[in-house]
Task: structure prediction
Amino acid sequence: MALSNAFNQYNNSKILTATPAELVLMLYEGAIKFCNVAIVAIEHKDIQKAHIHIVKTQKIVDHLRATLDMKYPVANEFDKVYAYLQRRLIEANIKKDIAILEEVCEHIRSMRDTWKEVMRINRASGAI
Result:
């Protein structure tokens, strides 16, 4: 019990001290995790668990989309990608389709990897 509490405190501290860029990275990581859990749940025929984790993935994508700063032209492109991912997640949830979830997860991994590279470049140039 104490170990669990210490872990929760660590995670809270990690979130509260994260930069905005690190928070976005954490969101991508969470979406990937929940998407993978949903895939495994479908493989094990646990429909309720799959639904719960697909919805968690959807909520993260919704949040990423809602927090876009539309004054930057690239935000419009991200908005289109997030809208597409939302549609695919709804379809995956209705059909409990592993292939769709794998596609969504691959897109999110790609976006995460790109985000990590942007963070690295900004750190190297002193922008962060």
Remarks:
- The radius of gyration is 16 Å.
- The helical segments are 2-16, 20-43, 47-66, 73-95, 98-125.
